[in-house]
TrEMBL record:
Belongs to the alpha-ketoglutarate dehydrogenase family. It comes from Didymodactylos carnosus. Keywords: Membrane, Oxidoreductase, Thiamine pyrophosphate, Transit peptide, Transmembrane, Transmembrane helix. SUPFAM superfamilies: Immunoglobulin (SSF48726), Thiamin diphosphate-binding fold (THDP-binding) (SSF52518). Its cofactor is thiamine diphosphate. Residues 263-343 form the Ig-like domain. This is Ig-like domain-containing protein. The chain crosses the membrane at residues 407-427. It comes from the Eukaryota. One of its GO terms (molecular function) is oxidoreductase activity, acting on the aldehyde or oxo group of donors, disulfide as acceptor.
Length: 1354
C-alpha cells in the first residue's frame, strides 16, 4: 500500500515539474512575442497583394518603417534578381538605368525613358503594365536603423495564362496498339503543376515532361508532355485531360476517347440454370442474362450446345431473345423462357405452337435444358464463345456436386452480408439527409443547400402541410383509380387543364367562348366507366348531397365538369410541378364549388358590398368633382377581404399586412378598416391628414393608409394597409418586407428559437395580402421580381394571397393592348402560382375562391392569385369619359341595370335569406355615420400614428444636429468568435487570422474589420441586423466574409451569431436575387416596421441603385414626409473613380443630394429627409453604422461605400478610434499641418483624400496646404466647417477638389452652400463636364487624374 502511494506521489511530482516547465516556457514565449509586437517594424507592401499578379497590371511597391514615432531612420528597398539572387538597392538613378552598367540589373537597363518603372518617392516605386520579366523578390531593410535587424521580404510572379493543346494519335484508337498522347503549353508563366488524367487515372508518370525556357524570354515556359502508351479498352468513352496549374489558375483541355476493342462478357455467367419448378413466382420469368461490351457493337448469336444454330423460329417454342443497349458501349442480351412451357416439358404436357411437332418440341426443350446454350459473339472471326448451361435444378446440383447448394447458399449469404454492409454504409452517409428532407416534399419547398440552422432560415422547421399524409394517401388512391378508369380520368384531366378557357368569369361577357378543341366530346370516343366506386377518388365531391350521385355516363360527366370548371369561376393549375399540390388544388376546388354559405356570412357579405357602394354614392354626391377611383363594379372585393381577415383571426394569424393600389382603396379604409371618414373628408377638402405639429407634407387621397385591430367573433387580428405611392405595384415588395419584419418580431417560423421539427411553420403568425390592378400587374417588372423572392429563404413570408381587381382596363388601355400574355396574372406562373379566375359579380364564387386561396396558402405556404374579373363603372377617374376610347365596353357597362351589390341583395331577398327592411336599416346607420363624420370634418383632430407600439419612445428628428456617443467598450470590441468549421484555407489565413491579429494589436484595422466590429457591437446590444443585396455574404470585393462556407458540405456559418450563449440580436445575411427594385423595396418595408433592426441594402456597384429609383423616390426619400414612416435603411453604394469605366465608377451622390431637403442658404439639422455620407476611415464607417441604431429617431443613410479603400494600406483605423466616448466626425480636419503656415485649403470628400495626401507628400507641400475632409454631406456640416476654416487664418485659396466630373459629384451642392452659408467662394479642381460618369480609356483617365492634381496643387 505504502509503495503504491509512493509511486503515485512520484508520478504527481514529475507531472508538476513538467507542468511548471511548460508554464515558464509559454510565459517566456509570450513575452518574446509581446516584445516583437511592441517594437517598430519594417513593412514591405506590394499592391496588388497577391503572389500572382496579372500581366499589364500596375504594381506598387513600398518599404516603410512602421511606428516610427521616435525614429528618423529611413528603410531601404532592394530588388532581388530571381535568377542570380543579386540584391540591388532601388534608387531613382537605378530605375532610370543610369550608373555603372554592370551594376544595373537587366530589368532596369531598358527603362531609360522611365516608361515602366516609376520612382514615386523614397522607397516607393511603381511598375506600369507588369510584364513576365518583372517577376522578382523585393526586400525592405534598414541597414542604418536603430531598430532590431529585421527585414521584410516578398516575392511575386507576373502571370501569362495559356490553355494547353492536346493531341492523341493515331486518330482511330484500337485496343492494344500504341497511342501517342501529347499535351503542350507554349509561352505561359508560372508553372505550378501538371496533371494528366484518363478518366480518374493519372497518366502523368507514364510520359515524359519537359519544361523549356525560351531563350529570348527568360521567364516564359514551354511545357511538353509526351507518352506512348498501349491503348486500353476501358479508355473508351472516357476523357483524356491535361490540367496545368499556372500560378493560382488551373487551365485544362480535354478530349473524349473512342476505342475499338474486342467484345467481352462482363455479367454473363458461364453456368446458369433454369428452374422451372418455381411456378409460384408467377411474375418472374426464368431468364439468362448476358452483358457484353464491344466497340463497335458485337454481333451475337445463340447456339445450342452442340453448336447447332438455334432454329430461327425459336420464339414459337417459348424462347425469346431480346437485345438492349446501355450507355458506355455495354449491351445486354436476355434470353427468356416461358415458364408454362417449361412446366409442360416436365409434366409431359403436349401443348405447343405446332401440334404436329409436339414430341419434337418437347425433346427440343428438354435438350436445350439439358445441354445448355452456346453464345457466340462476332461469329465471323469467332473471337469469343461462351457456354451457358440452362438446366433443371437437379441437373445443376449434379454439376456443382452434392454440396453445390450449400456452396451456393454460402456464397449467397456472403453476397447478402456484403450488400448489407454496403447498404448500411450508404444509409449512414445519407442518414442525416433522410431525416431532414423528405423527398416527397422536395418539390414543394426550396431551401438553402446547407443543412444547419442559420438566423432567418431553419432547415429543421416543419415545412409540409399538417395533413400531408392524408394528401399523399389521396394521391396514391387517385393514381390507382386513374389506372383502373382511364377514360374518366382523361376527361377530368382535360377539364382541369382547359376548363378555364370556357369559364364565364367576365361579367361583361366581352369575349365569350363556347367551345375549344381540347374539350370537344368527340375526342373522348371510347368512354367507359370500369369501376364506378373507384371513380369517386378521381374528383372532389364530398361537400354537397346533390353531388353524391356519381355521373354514370359521358354526358353526365361532361355536365358535371362543365359546372365545376366552366362556370363563373375556374382555376389554372396545369403548370404546377408538384403532383401533390396540383391534385389537392383540383380536388379541393371541385369540393368547394358546391360550398353552401351560411346565411350569416351571406348577409355579412351583402352588407359589406352595399356599404362599399353607398360610400361611393356618398362621395359622389358630396364631392361632385372628386377623383375617387371608386370601387363601383368591383364591390366583390369586400367578400374577399372579409373572409381573409375573418379566417386570419380564427386561425391565430396576429398580423395581416395589405398593399393595395388606388381602386376601391378608400372604400376598404372606411368601410372595413375603421379609417375615420372625417379625416378622409378633411383630406378631400384640402386639409391635413396629420396634426399640424408634426412635420409632414401628407399625400393624396388615394394614398392614405391605416393600421387597425379587427374583431371577428371575439378573435382579434391586426391589419396594416401600408401607404402606397402612385407608382403602381411599387408597394408590393414593401408589404412583403414589412410582413417578414413582423415575422422576425413575432419569432414566426424560421425566426423561431424552436429548433425542432414541430408544428410551427413560417407564416403562422403573419399573412401578406397583395392587391393589384390588372394592367399594372401585367406590366410592371417589379411583380416578377417580387414573385422570384417569394420562395427564397431570407425573403419568404410563407406565401402571399394576391387579389387582382381585374376591371379589364388600365386607364384607357383595354386588355388586348395591356399585355401579350393570355391572362394579366401570368407572371405568377413563373413560381408555379395557382390562379383562380372568378367573376367579380358573383360574391359566393369569390368566397369559394378566397376559401381555396386561404387554405392553399395555409397548407403549402406559397403564393396564390385570385383574378377577380369585374368592370370599372366610370372612366379611369369619375371625371373621365371612357366612351372616347372604349365605346363597346362602356356600352355594355352602361346597359347594366343593377349594381353587383344590389343584384346580390336581391337574390338573398328572393331566397328569403335577407329581409329588405333589416338591410335597409343597416345601410341607413352607415349612411348616418358618414353624414356625422362629414359634419365633423372641419373640426376633427386627426392623429399622427407614427410613434406607437414598437416605435414608442422614438421622436421625429429635430432641426439641429446632434452628436451621439457611438464608441464602444474596447475589451468588448476585442471579443471574438472563431470558426472551426472547415472554412476555406485562404479565408482562414487572409481573413480570419489577419483580422484577429489586427484586433489583437489594436491597429491597422481595415474597412471590413470595422464593419464586423460595428455589427458585433450592435448584436451584443440586442439589435438585429439584416444585410441584403447581391452576394453580400462574401461581399462584392471579397471583403466581408460575414458568412463562411463549410468546404466539405457547403453549410453556411455566420460567426457573429455565435457571440455568446444568451445572444438576442442576430445578423441575417441575405444574398439576394439579381434585382434592385424589388429587393430594395423589400428591405425598405422591413426597415419601416421595427426600429430595432438595422437594415442594410448593398448595391453590387453604386450605380446599380438606379434600377430601384422608384423605391428611392417614392419611399426612401419621401416616406417620412408623406406618410410619417421613419426608416433607418442604410444603403451601401460602392463608389470611386478607379478607371473602371462609366458604369462602375459612380453612385451618383449628386442625384441623392438633389432629392434631399438640405438647405442651400440655411443650417441643416437631423431632420433632413436622408443623410448622405462619404466616410474615409473604417472607424468613421463603424460610427455611422452604430449611429443608425443608437439614435432616438431613424433616417435613411446613403453611404458612398469604398472599393479601393477596402484594401488601401493607409485606410486603416486603430481600435482606440472606436473606444467609448468617440463618435462620428462630420468633418475631418488636417492635423499634419501647422495651421498658421497654410495658405491653401483643399476641401475633399471620400477616397480622393488619399490621392491628395499622396500628391502633397510627393510635391512636398505639407507646409502650406491643408486638406479637409467632408465626411457627411447632408445634413451639410456648416458648423464643423466653420471651425475648420477659422483655423487657417493665413489661407487665401480655398479649393474644392473632386475626382468626379464637374456636373457630377458634390460640386454643385457644396459650392452653393460654402458661398451662401460660410462665405467662402471655392475654386474648382476636378474633371470637366461629361455626359457619362467616367471615360473607359485608361490613358485618358490617367491624364484626367494628373490634371486634377495640377489644378489642386499648382
Ligand atoms: C408605374 C405607373 N405608371 C403609370 C401610372 C398612371 N396610371 C395610374 S392608374 C393607371 C391605370 C392602372 O390600370 P390598372 O392597373 O388596371 O388599375 P385600375 O385603375 O384599372 O384599377 C395608370 C396607367 C401609374 N400610376 N404608375
Ligand atoms: Mg384595370
Amino acid at each position: 500500500m505504502i509503495e503504491t502511494l509512493m509511486k503515485i506521489n512520484s508520478i504527481m511530482y514529475h507531472c508538476s515539474i513538467i507542468y511548471s516547465s511548460c508554464y515558464f516556457l509559454l510565459t517566456f514565449l509570450f513575452f518574446l512575442i509581446h516584445r516583437t509586437y511592441a517594437a517598430p517594424s519594417l513593412k514591405l507592401t506590394i499592391s496588388p497583394d497577391n503572389k500572382y499578379i496579372d500581366r499589364d497590371s500596375e504594381i506598387s511597391i513600398s518599404c516603410e518603417l512602421r511606428d516610427p514615432a521616435d525614429s528618423e531612420d529611413k528603410p531601404v528597398l532592394y530588388y532581388v534578381d530571381p535568377r542570380t539572387k543579386k540584391r540591388t538597392a532601388v534608387t531613382r538613378a537605378l530605375l532610370n538605368g543610369k550608373g555603372e552598367k554592370q551594376d544595373i540589373p537587366d530589368l532596369f537597363l531598358n527603362n531609360q525613358d522611365r516608361e515602366r518603372y516609376k520612382y514615386e518617392g523614397k522607397n516607393r516605386i511603381k511598375i506600369i503594365k507588369a510584364q513576365l520579366i518583372d517577376r522578382a523578390a523585393y526586400e525592405c531593410e534598414c541597414p542604418d536603423c536603430a531598430i532590431p535587424p529585421t527585414k521584410d521580404r516578398k516575392e511575386f510572379f507576373v502571370t501569362k495564362y495559356v490553355d494547353p493543346i492536346l493531341s492523341v494519335t493515331p486518330n482511330q484508337l484500337v485496343e492494344g496498339d500504341k497511342a501517342t498522347l501529347r499535351c503542350q503549353v507554349d509561352e505561359f508563366y508560372p508553372f505550378t503543376s501538371l496533371e494528366i488524367l484518363i478518366h480518374h487515372h493519372t497518366m502523368k508518370d507514364k510520359g515524359e515532361m519537359q519544361i523549356v525556357n525560351d531563350s529570348k524570354n527568360v521567364f516564359g515556359h514551354n511545357l511538353k508532355w509526351n507518352a506512348s502508351i498501349p491503348v486500353q479498352a476501358d479508355w473508351h468513352e472516357h476523357t483524356f485531360q491535361c490540367i496545368v496549374k499556372q500560378g493560382e489558375q488551373t487551365r485544362r483541355n480535354e478530349k473524349k476517347l473512342s476505342v475499338l476493342f474486342s467484345p467481352r462478357f462482363s455479367v454473363c455467367h458461364e453456368k446458369q440454370h433454369i428452374d422451372h419448378e418455381k411456378n409460384d413466382e408467377t411474375n418472374t420469368e426464368p431468364k439468362i442474362e448476358c452483358s457484353y461490351t464491344g466497340n463497335p457493337k458485337p454481333q451475337i448469336e445463340w447456339y445450342k450446345a452442340n453448336n447447332e444454330k438455334l432454329i430461327d423460329d425459336y420464339n414459337k417454342g417459348g424462347i425469346s431473345i431480346k437485345e438492349e443497349s446501355e450507355p458506355f458501349g455495354v449491351y445486354k442480351s436476355i434470353v427468356k423462357f416461358d415458364r408454362q412451357k417449361l412446366a409442360e416439358v416436365k409434366n409431359g404436357f403436349k401443348a405447343v405452337a405446332d401440334p404436329n411437332e409436339v414430341d419434337s418440341n418437347k425433346n427440343y426443350f428438354q435438350k436445350l435444358i439439358n445441354q445448355g446454350f452456346l453464345v457466340r459473339l462476332n461469329p465471323n472471326n469467332l473471337t469469343k464463345i461462351i457456354t451457358i448451361v440452362a438446366t433443371e435444378k437437379e441437373a445443376a446440383n449434379k454439376q456443382f456436386g452434392n454440396n453445390g447448394h450449400l456452396l451456393l447458399a454460402r456464397l449467397n449469404y456472403l453476397c447478402l452480408l456484403g450488400s448489407l454492409l454496403l447498404f448500411f454504409k450508404i444509409f449512414m452517409k445519407y442518414f442525416q439527409l433522410l431525416f431532414r428532407i423528405n423527398p416527397l416534399h422536395k418539390n414543394i419547398y426550396r431551401s438553402y443547400k446547407h443543412q444547419t440552422k442559420i438566423f432567418g432560415y431553419n432547415p429543421n422547421l416543419k415545412n409540409t402541410p399538417s395533413n400531408i399524409e392524408e394528401i399523399q394517401t389521396n394521391l396514391t388512391r387517385y393514381n390507382k383509380s386513374r389506372c383502373s378508369n382511364p377514360s374518366v380520368s382523361l376527361l377530368i384531366d382535360a377539364y382541369r387543364k382547359h376548363g378555364h378557357q370556357l369559364a364565364k368569369t367576365d361579367p361583361l361577357e366581352l369575349a365569350v367562348k363556347s367551345t375549344i378543341p381540347e374539350l370537344d366530346d368527340n375526342i373522348f370516343p371510347q368512354f367507359t366507366i370500369n369501376n364506378s366506386e373507384d371513380v369517386k377518388n378521381l374528383i372532389g365531391l364530398t361537400i354537397s348531397d346533390e353531388e353524391d350521385k356519381l355521373p354514370s355516363n359521358k354526358q353526365e360527366w361532361i355536365q358535371l365538369l362543365q359546372k365545376r370548371y366552366c362556370d363563373k369561376i375556374s382555376i389554372e393549375l396545369e403548370y404546377i410541378e408538384s403532383d401533390i399540390e396540383r391534385l389537392w388544388l383540383a380536388r379541393r376546388f371541385e369540393e368547394l364549388r358546391t360550398l353552401k354559405l351560411e346565411p350569416t356570412l351571406q348577409q355579412r357579405i351583402a352588407e359589406h358590398m352595399l356599404k362599399c357602394e353607398v360610400f361611393d354614392q356618398f362621395l359622389g354626391a358630396k364631392f361632385t368633382t372628386l377623383k375617387r377611383y371608386s370601387g363601383e363594379g368591383a364591390e366583390g372585393m369586400m367578400a374577399f377581404f372579409d373572409l381573409c381577415f375573418d379566417k386570419s383571426a380564427q386561425s391565430g394569424v396576429e398580423n395581416v399586412v395589405v398593399c393595395m393600389p388606388h381602386r376601391g382603396r378608400n372604400n376598404l379604409l372606411v368601410c372595413m378598416l375603421n379609417y375615420p371618414a372625417a379625416v378622409m373628408f378633411r383630406k378631400i377638402k384640402g386639409k391635413r391628414e396629420f396634426p399640424a405639429d408634426v412635420k409632414s407634407t401628407g399625400d393624396v387621397l388615394s394614398h392614405l393608409y391605416t393600421s387597425t385591430d379587427l374583431d371577428y367573433n371575439g378573435k382579434n387580428v391586426h391589419v396594416s394597409l401600408i401607404p402606397n405611392p402612385s407608382h403602381l405595384e411599387a408597394n408590393n415588395p414593401v408589404a412583403v418586407g414589412k410582413a417578414r419584419s413582423k415575422q422576425l418580431s413575432l419569432k414566426d417560423g424560421h425566426y423561431s428559437s424552436n429548433d425542432k421539427n414541430d408544428e410551427t411553420r413560417h407564416g403562422d403568425k403573419v399573412l401578406c395580402i397583395q392587391v393589384h390592378g390588372d394592367a399594372s400587374f401585367a406590366g410592371q417588372g417589379i411583380i416578377p421580381e417580387t414573385f422570384q423572392l417569394s420562395h427564397l429563404p431570407n425573403y419568404s413570408v410563407g406565401g402571399s394571397i394576391h387579389l387582382v381587381t381585374n376591371n379589364q382596363i388600365g386607364y384607357t388601355t383595354p386588355q388586348n393592348l395591356a399585355r401579350s400574355s393570355r391572362y394579366c396574372t401570368d407572371f405568377g406562373k413563373i413560381v408555379n402560382c395557382p390562379v383562380i379566375h372568378v367573376n367579380g359579380h358573383r360574391p359566393e364564387e369569390i368566397v369559394q375562391a378566397t376559401q381555396l386561396a386561404y387554405e392553399y396558402r395555409s397548407l403549402f405556404r406559397k403564393d396564390i392569385i385570385i383574378d377577380m374579373v369585374c368592370y370599372r363603372r366610370w372612366g379611369h377617374n369619375e371625371l373621365d369619359d371612357p366612351t372616347f376610347t372604349n365605346p363597346s365596353m362602356y356600352k355594355k357597362i352602361n346597359e347594366a341595370t343593377m349594381s353587383p351589390a344590389s343584384h346580390y341583395l336581391q337574390s338573398l331577398i328572393d331566397s328569403t335569406i335577407v329581409k329588405k327592411g333589416t338591410m335597409d336599416k343597416k345601410i341607413k346607420t352607415f349612411r348616418d355615420m358618414l353624414e356625422e363624420q362629414y359634419a365633423q370634418a372641419d373640426t376633427y383632430q386627426p392623429k399622427a400614428p407614427h410613434l406607437e407600439r414598437q416605435w414608442s419612445g422614438f421622436i421625429q428628428a429635430k432641426p439641429n444636429c446632434t452628436q451621439w456617443n457611438t464608441g464602444f467598450n474596447l475589451s468588448l470590441l476585442k471579443f471574438e468568435t472563431l470558426s472551426k468549421k472547415q472554412i476555406h484555407p485562404t479565408i482562414e489565413r487572409a481573413h480570419v487570422l489577419k483580422r484577429k491579429q489586427r484586433i489583437d494589436t489594436e491597429i491597422g484595422l481595415d474597412w471590413s474589420t470595422c464593419e464586423a466590429l460595428a455589427f458585433g457591437s450592435l448584436l451584443l446590444q440586442g439589435y438585429n441586423i439584416r444585410i441584403s443585396g447581391q452576394d453580400v455574404g462574401r461581399g462584392t470585393f471579397s471583403q466581408r466574409h460575414c458568412m463562411l462556407v463549410n468546404q466539405q458540405n457547403d453549410d453556411v456559418y455566420v460567426p457573429l451569431n455565435s457571440l455568446y450563449e444568451k445572444q438576442t440580436g442576430f445578423l441575417e445575411v441575405c444574398n439576394s436575387i439579381l434585382s434592385e427594385e424589388a429587393v430594395l423595396g423589400f428591405d425598405y418595408g422591413f426597415s419601416i416596421d421595427n426600429p430595432n433592426n438595422l437594415v442594410i441594402w448593398e448595391a453590387q456597384f453604386g450605380d446599380f441603385y438606379n434600377g430601384a429609383q422608384i423605391i428611392i423616390d417614392t419611399y426612401i426619400s419621401s416616406g417620412e414626409l408623406k406618410f410619417l414612416t421613419q426608416s433607418g435603411l442604410t444603403m451601401l453604394l460602392p463608389h470611386g473613380m478607379d478607371g473602371a469605366g462609366p458604369d462602375h465608377s459612380s453612385c451618383h451622390l449628386e442625384r441623392f443630394l438633389q432629392i434631399t431637403d438640405s438647405k442651400e442658404d440655411g443650417i441643416d439639422g437631423d431632420d433632413v429627409n436622408m443623410q448622405i455620407v462619404n466616410p474615409t476611415t473604417p472607424a468613421q464607417y463603424f460610427h455611422l453604422l452604430r449611429r443608425q441604431m443608437i439614435r432616438n429617431y431613424r433616417k435613411p443613410l446613403i453611404v458612398a461605400a469604398p472599393k479601393l479603400l477596402l484594401r488601401h494600406p493607409e485606410c486603416i483605423s486603430s481600435l482606440k478610434e472606436m473606444d467609448e466616448g468617440t463618435s462620428f466626425q462630420r468633418v475631418l480636419g488636417d492635423n499634419q499641418v501647422a495651421a498658421d503656415k497654410v495658405n491653401r485649403v483643399l476641401f475633399v470628400s471620400g477616397k480622393h483624400y488619399y490621392t491628395l495626401c499622396d500628391a502633397r507628400l510627393k510635391l512636398k507641400r505639407q507646409d502650406n496646404i491643408a486638406i479637409v475632409r467632408l465626411e457627411e454631406i447632408c445634413p451639410f456640416p456648416a458648423a464643423d466647417l466653420r471651425q475648420e476654416i477659422k483655423k487657417y487664418k493665413n489661407a487665401t485659396q480655398f479649393i474644392w477638389c473632386q475626382e468626379e466630373h464637374r456636373n457630377q459629384g458634390l460640386w454643385t451642392f457644396i459650392s452653393a452652400r460654402f458661398e451662401n452659408i460660410l462665405g467662402v467662394k471655392l475654386k474648382y479642381a476636378g474633371r470637366q463636364v461629361l455626359g457619362t460618369p467616367a471615360v473607359a480609356i485608361n490613358e485618358i483617365h490617367l491624364q484626367e487624374c494628373e490634371q486634377i492634381l495640377k489644378m489642386a496643387f499648382e
